[in-house]
TrEMBL record:
Residue numbers binding substrate: Y165
Source organism, top-level taxon: Bacteria
Active site: H251
PROSITE patterns attached to this UniProt entry: SUCCINYL_COA_LIG_1, SUCCINYL_COA_LIG_2
Name the record gives this protein: Succinate--CoA ligase [ADP-forming] subunit alpha
Molecular function in Gene Ontology: ligase activity
PANTHER family per the UniProt record, alphabetical: SUCCINATE--COA LIGASE [ADP_GDP-FORMING] SUBUNIT ALPHA, MITOCHONDRIAL (PTHR11117:SF2), SUCCINYL-COA LIGASE SUBUNIT ALPHA (PTHR11117)
Gene that encodes it: sucD
Organism (species): Prauserella halophila
Family: Belongs to the succinate/malate CoA ligase alpha subunit family.
Positions annotated to bind CoA: T17, G18, S19, E20, K43, I100, T101, E102
Keyword Glycosyltransferase: no
Amino acid sequence: MSIFLDSSSKVIVQGITGSEGTKHATKMIAAGTNIVGGVNARKAGQTVTIADKELGVFGSVGEAMKETGADVSVIFVPPKFAKDAVIEAIDAEIGLAVVITEGIPVHDAAYFWAHANAKGNKTRIIGPNCPGIISPSQSNAGIIPADITGPGRIGLVSKSGTLTYQMMYELRDIGFSTSIGIGGDPIIGTTHIDALEAFQADPETDVIVMIGEIGGDAEERAAEYVKANVTKPVVGYVAGFTAPEGKTMGHAGAIVSGSAGTAQAKKEALEAAGVKVGKTPTETADLARELYKAL
């Protein structure tokens, strides 16, 4: 079992002929992902061979969906073209759009997020500025390394790409149902709460690990959601305890104002909701392992 992505998912790559699209499509296919085509309007009608698989290049997401039955798009499009690419995916009503691109202007992200809402949220957006989503041994949509863990019964949702990878490696002895890197930009599609809701409903996810970071109030809102709606054990980690106040750190969304958005405030909110919070990624993994073994 998994959430949002599984072995039946049919994946297209917007930007498949670019260097990043080609490189990561090769890795996704090696991980077992069923990539069925790509999109590049300038090269429509051509084919590309990736990992010994001949794939059609289509002029639009809608055309690709009609010809291949695709239900997932992974978007490797430069920032200045990314808004149009995401809107195209939304207008085609593809089920899942994974936006890997970093550096998309906040205004553009706000625009396509609002557009998805206006269209009835028929397209789930993951990202932007994220590593994507992986259901180990089933499918991998994005840039998460597929060889650092295997299938298991932990669900992971993380703002940080690097910490996604570390947590997957730390808990490789148990494995994961699905790992999602939601991205750390100020405006993202899928949130901690969306993932928590899905993991709570997934009968094959036993423990949930949630990684946040300084900035905004997403973790505080997630803590409220856990307290009201989640019965499964949840373990948390918040990156940025040593970050100086008022300074943007790393991700565009990681800025602290007063006490709002600090790592300490997030930790306290999570612990008040019954979430065990580790001081380091390794300690967090140990807490998750203890809870899993106690089930």
